[in-house]
């Protein structure tokens, strides 16, 4: 809870990890296993030993010293208010967690603490079929396919008077054409007080729209399944400041593996919600646009002063017309597309408006794959987007679960990477790893420039004073000073798939000829490399199907990918904890355990705790006591 | 028209090419340019010089010495009956070709001569919007989106009492969900005589169904765009003899490039046509299954004795219920899938029931890509399908237009490959090119076996007598005799995409590490290689947008891929000509010209005729006279 620290929820435990050196503040560790009675009940329900732990999935810092946590608690979701003293952690109260946290650690959820309320979106029943968006006491209708249809929640964030939820779900409007998953954004009003009379506990402002991430054409090609979003970032679009959300969209699990990055402006999202509604007049009708004259006043889905005074007609309309007719368009076409049978994108975070040497601002995207890689890309605005770097950060090829950027402070700006295996931080750029001018310019990384005086590739943002002696070319990747041969690094092709192809064939090669070799290469820091840190808490090898969940103290903005640098850096009042949930279970069939490991800057001390029996089939009915095991040195698996 | 010969239609000309050595029988050449008046009219309509030729697209051998040809004739389709004498070719009659042949050489068409009738499917108007299935005088309804909706015809074939058409078209049943292309098979009765009264010139038996080539799953992934089919082949499915059709299906043009091979049994196709119909009750209704009690008697779509006596109700029903409710399922899931941003599959032919050394029969598939490659694959039945070989046959990477197998006779069995650039033949196997036992067994080619006596890789089918000394392993690709190290060539993965991935990563490497290097490698025969022959008639380089069309004397079975070995080999009464049409214009934006070249078995004499001006922009208003140019030697471009 100090500055430079991060809370990471896990299985039966929440760790407080320093971002300076990834060491754990053991005094601030919260241990919260399910009771023996709850575990017994969980077994009786037919669940496995691994499932019958308390996977902590919801976290919110309510004020300076109070923290709300909710966990799966052996298939009996439970929430707790904790109070932190100097050296003491106290449980203030405990309450039922149904609707706040899923029963099953494999189910996705998202939660958000905003203006004194906790918003959650999850599956609210034991069987995992009842999707729900919830803010006490308001909830979505039960088994109403129009409101939510087997939704998989990705993220949530607050913006203006509203809270937004990003998710994918079975498309009700597509049923006559087959089965398909669509990506959605839903919106509720923060001031929603429920409807009149029997609607007192129902949303009166919930509406949703499809997110359109597609390659345009006579027959557009859609990337339909949202996997991750960034937070709302202050960016620039069409030369005007815009609030953007970057999202990762993939093809379905059994389709050709394709991933796309699309960005949506909050203005476009709001505009879609101000547009026409969609309806199906009768059971066998098509889904059609609702004529404007059929929309009641006040317009459903808007914030009103007191929703309890709304006419029944308006409340009924919004319940049966949750879906907007138009989809939210992405800005331009997909910024980047990758086609690969080997991996998909599953996580994203953005360093917005990074300035090039010439002062041009560009969003730098950090993308996690489902096989343990980090891909770096740059949205250069009108000049198109490019992939610049790719590195393998998890040699076991575990999916990247959460990416986030921890800023400033004594630990500097870092990319924090959480997989089911481990937590690690790496610098946002690897300029100093590059040894030649040509490569330094060729990587087209806005962070990096070649210093013609010292003959080194440096992060020009760290330089104060004259930058005359630095060279960079993010647009073309060549500079006459260091490339007199005139060889031009191939420009970015216009067709998005070709971009990808180039990325796979050429760009990877620029830095790292074969990514499988990354860990022995420039792409990856070796054992003694500076800046990359990792903490291993317990080993996934030994866990098989266990998915480690973690706490996110969400804030003003969302919590799926979770904020996780402490308030010192975010200049806000909350400590953020990254969520460590099995988001993309569709893509990543197996879970894994959570690693957390502290290691000092240039040291490689990995610590192993919470080690269940080696054989996953061996059930250990009392692994809760594992938390008390002392830390022990283990063979380092990877840096 | 002799044995061992093949008719190839082209621009203003039909060549008679010997399959023995690919030499042209100049005496049998038919020259048929449009008249100067037609060309002038074509220019007046705003068409280019290249479009205003006579691209011969329909061909049918009516009897021993009579041939029907139809061509685009400078945007004024025309048909002619030719009579062949010993040394004379005579035009018997000439008639309008509208409905038989498209106006635009870029448009697809198919035609079939069966039981004395010519069946054609094409676009029947100048603008190219009116798709039509035609057999004098019967035709499909004009502008009826339910019957045909912007159809792209692929092939046609006769089976039992029916004629089948394979095509892709905009899916009318999908309109409420967006725009999409579906693959279809349509069926008409050969004995259809038209309806009563005003329906005298309309089909009374035309029905169609979707072809389902998809990777199964909760959310199946569809390959929706049919590109090519084989003929009906006598194969085995589920241990029983079956009539199968192999088809190539791709993703849409602007989607991730993916190609799949699916096979359909004629039994399944017939069963689907015996199933429920689909209908849209009113304009805004969903498309739903028609209840059986609403289907009139006699059941629409069946053959009846005299369709002119059908009740109006039955005729009206079939006109408004052309579409079947169920799609035709493919046998199993796609046999093979390839995902590649570089190329797609566009042509297929099958050598059915090739026997392995142990006598197990397998269909060998030869697949052409849109970048000039031939991929060989084996359908091993329950053991799954594998790619075995890939070779670049067209160094200019022109799309393969037509593939066919020419059997027996003095020229032996050969694969005939037609691109816009050239015609060439290659042997069906390349066993003798392989020098080591390990590779010979590893290629998993049913044609090839390793001779342990002579230490050579041979085609075991040619061996008469004992085969005890031969080894082969089509299922695992290893044999202890030649691989004592025990290294196992990786088995075929179960997931179809992985198969493909393997194919791209490993299999290509088995024979040919990089296919771009194929022409200097084992994969491709060098200048002196035995068996590969090529004939170049005129150069695509100089033509730009011109698509060469060709004549297919279609027969009992279809004509898009066209039969083209002469009657001597087919044991039928017709000479077949391959169609050389711009089938896949969606995938292959540019056309090219047609090459034909005769060269003796081990010689490399390429001949160049019909050479338009080097600069495509230079218009040559009288290229029809080009046909009279004498043959001249040219630099060989590729063997």
UniProtKB/TrEMBL annotation, chains A, B:
Coiled coil: none annotated. Keywords: Differentiation, Disulfide bond, Glycoprotein, Membrane, Neurogenesis, Transmembrane, Transmembrane helix. InterPro entries: Plexin_repeat (IPR002165), PSI (IPR016201), SEM1A_sema_dom (IPR042068), Semap_dom (IPR001627), Semap_dom_sf (IPR036352), Semaphorin (IPR027231), WD40/YVTN_repeat-like_dom_sf (IPR015943). The chain crosses the membrane at residues 543-565. Residues 1-428 form the Sema domain. PROSITE patterns: SEMA. This is Sema. It is found in: Membrane. Gene3D superfamilies: ligand-binding face of the semaphorins, domain 2, YVTN repeat-like/Quinoprotein amine dehydrogenase. Residues 618-631 have a biased composition (Polar residues). Its main location: membrane. It comes from Nesidiocoris tenuis. PANTHER family: MIP07328P, SEMAPHORIN. It comes from the Eukaryota. Residues 616-639 are annotated as: Disordered.
């Amino acid at each position: 809870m100090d500055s430079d620290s991060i809370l990471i929820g896990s299985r039966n435990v929440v760790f407080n990890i320093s971002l300076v050196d990834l060491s754990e503040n053991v005094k601030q560790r919260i241990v919260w296993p399910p009771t023996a009675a709850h575990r017994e009940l969980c077994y009786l329900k037919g669940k496995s030993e691994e499932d019958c732990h308390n996977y902590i999935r919801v976290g919110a810092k309510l004020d300076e010293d109070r923290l709300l946590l909710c966990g799966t608690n052996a298939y009996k979701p439970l929430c707790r208010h904790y109070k932190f003293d100097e050296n003491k952690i106290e449980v203030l109260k405990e309450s039922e967690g149904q609707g706040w946290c899923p029963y099953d650690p494999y189910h996705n959820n998202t939660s958000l603490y905003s203006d004194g309320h906790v918003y959650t979106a999850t599956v609210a029943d034991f069987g995992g079929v009842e999707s729900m968006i919830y803010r006490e006491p308001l909830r979505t209708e039960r088994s109403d396919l129009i409101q939510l249809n087997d939704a998989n929640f990705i993220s949530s964030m607050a913006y203006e008077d509203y809270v937004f939820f990003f998710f994918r779900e079975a498309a009700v409007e597509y049923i006559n054409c087959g089965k398909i998953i669509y990506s959605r954004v839903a919106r509720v009003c923060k001031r929603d007080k429920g409807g009149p009379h029997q609607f007192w506990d129902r949303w009166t402002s919930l509406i949703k729209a499809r997110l359109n991430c597609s390659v345009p054409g006579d027959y557009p090609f859609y990337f339909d399944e949202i996997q991750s979003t960034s937070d709302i970032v202050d960016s620039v679009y069409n030369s005007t400041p815009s609030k953007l959300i970057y999202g990762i969209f993939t093809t379905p699990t059994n389709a050709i593996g394709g991933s796309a990055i699309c960005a949506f402006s909050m203005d476009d999202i709001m505009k879609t919600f101000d547009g026409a509604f969609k309806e199906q007049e009768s059971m066998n009708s098509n889904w059609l646009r609702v004529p404007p004259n059929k929309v009641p006043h006040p317009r459903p889905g808007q914030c009103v002063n007191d929703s309890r005074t709304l006419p029944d007609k308006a409340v009924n309309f919004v319940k049966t017309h949750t879906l907007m007719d138009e989809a939210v368009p992405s800005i331009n076409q997909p910024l980047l597309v990758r086609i690969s049978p080997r991996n998909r994108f599953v996580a994203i975070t953005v360093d917005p408006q990074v300035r090039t040497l010439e002062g041009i601002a560009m969003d730098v995207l950090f993308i996690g794959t489902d096989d343990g890689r980090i891909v770096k890309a740059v949205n250069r605005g009108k000049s198109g987007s490019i992939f610049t770097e790719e590195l393998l950060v998890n040699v076991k090829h575990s999916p990247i679960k959460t990416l986030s950027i921890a800023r400033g402070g004594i630990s500097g700006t870092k990319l924090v990477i959480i997989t089911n295996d481990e937590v690690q931080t790496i610098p946002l750029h690897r300029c100093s790893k590059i040894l030649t001018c040509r490569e330094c310019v060729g990587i087209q990384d806005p962070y990096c420039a070649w210093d013609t005086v010292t003959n080194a590739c440096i992060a020009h943002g760290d330089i104060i004073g004259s930058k005359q002696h630095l060279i960079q070319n993010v647009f073309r990747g060549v500079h006459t000073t260091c490339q007199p041969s005139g060889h031009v690094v191939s420009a970015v092709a216009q067709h998005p798939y070709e971009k990808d192809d180039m990325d796979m064939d050429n760009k990877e090669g620029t830095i790292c000829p074969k990514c499988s070799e990354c860990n022995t290469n420039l792409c990856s820091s070796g054992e003694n490399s500076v800046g990359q840190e990792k903490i291993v808490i317990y080993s996934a090898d030994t866990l098989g199907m266990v998915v480690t969940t973690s706490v996110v103290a969400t804030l003003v903005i969302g919590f799926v990918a979770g904020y996780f640098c402490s308030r010192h850096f975010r200049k806000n009042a909350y400590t953020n904890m990254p969520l460590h949930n099995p988001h993309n279970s569709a893509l990543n069939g197996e879970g894994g355990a959570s690693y957390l490991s502290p290691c000092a800057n240039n040291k490689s001390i990995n610590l192993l705790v919470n080690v269940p029996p080696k054989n996953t089939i061996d059930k250990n009915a009392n692994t809760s006591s594992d938390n008390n095991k002392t830390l022990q040195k283990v063979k380092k698996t990877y840096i």
